[in-house]
Predict the 3D structure of the following.
Amino acid sequence: MANSLLENEEVKLSNTPSARQLNEYLVWDRSTRCFHWINVLCVLGLMIIGTIILNANTLGVSDEGKVSLKILHAWIGYAFAANLLYRVLWGFVGNKYARWRAILPLGSNYMAELKGHIHGIRAGKIPAYSGHSPLGRLMVTFLLLLLLTQMATGLVIAGTDLYFPPFGHEFAEWATGAGEDHSKLEGLQPGTKEMLDPEGYAAMREFRKPFITVHKLAFFILLFAIIIHITAVVVAETKEGNGLVSAMFTGKKVFSDPPEY
Ligand code: HEM
C-alpha cells in the first residue's frame, strides 16, 4: 500500500532534508480546498444570520428587518448551494482523495480499516493516512449529509416566504390562489401579507412546516458536528503532526515515513 502511494507521481512532491527526513504529499486538490473554504465562509454567514432570524423577536427585529435578513440569508444560501453541488460533482472527477470512493464509508475494506484505526487509537499507534482516516470519512459524510439537508430544505423555504427560485413561482401561485393566471402575481413582494388567498396561503404554510422543522433541527446538529469536526482536527494535528490544517491551504500533508494508506 505504501509503495503504491510512493509510485503515484501525483503524490510525492519533494524530499526535505532535515533532522528527520520529511516528505510532502499532495493530497487535497485545488477544487477541494476552494470548496472547503468557500463552504466555511458561507456556513458561518448562514449560521450567524440564521441565529438572528431564530431570535428576531427577542432581539426586537422589525418585520421588514426580518424579511431583509431572510433575503440576505437566501442569497448566501445560493452561493452555498452552488459550491456544495460543485463538490458533489467533483467527487466523480477530482483526484483520488477527492472522489466519493475515498470519502464515503463504503467498500469491501472499509470495516477492516475502521477496526484497524480504532485499534491504533487505543494502542497509541495510529496508522498514517494520506487522505481521510476511516473515522474522518464517517465525519465528513455526516457533515455533507447535513449540508445537503440544509440546502434542500432551505431552497424549499426560500420559495414559501420570499417566493424565490427554484420553487417560489409555484408557491406564489398557491398562496395567492392565482393558479395559472400569472397576471395576479404581478407586484407580489417577498414576505408580503397582501394579495394572499387565505385558504391557499394557510395550506401552503402547513406544507412548509416540516421543512422549517428539519432546517432548524439540522442547524443545531450541524453546529454540534462542526464543533466535533474542529476538535478532531486539532487533536489529530497535535498527536500526528502531519500538517492537517495547513494541508487545507497548500494541499500537502507531511510524513516522515510513507503513509500506510
Ligand atoms: C448550512 C446551511 C444553513 C444553515 C445553518 C441555515 C440556518 C438557518 C436557521 C437557523 C434559520 C432560522 C429558522 C427559523 O427561525 O425560521 C434559517 C432560516 C431560513 N433559511 Fe437557512 N440555513 C442554511 C442554508 C440555507 C439555504 C441554502 C437556504 C436557501 C437558499 C436557506 C433559506 C432560509 C430561509 C428562507 C429561512 C427563513 C425561514 C423563515 O421564514 O423563518 N437556508 N436558516
User: Anything to note?
Assistant: The first helix runs from residue 2 to 7. The beta strands are 12-16, 22-26, 252-255. Residues 51 and 219 are 9 Å apart (CA to CA). The first strand starts at residue 12 and ends at 16.
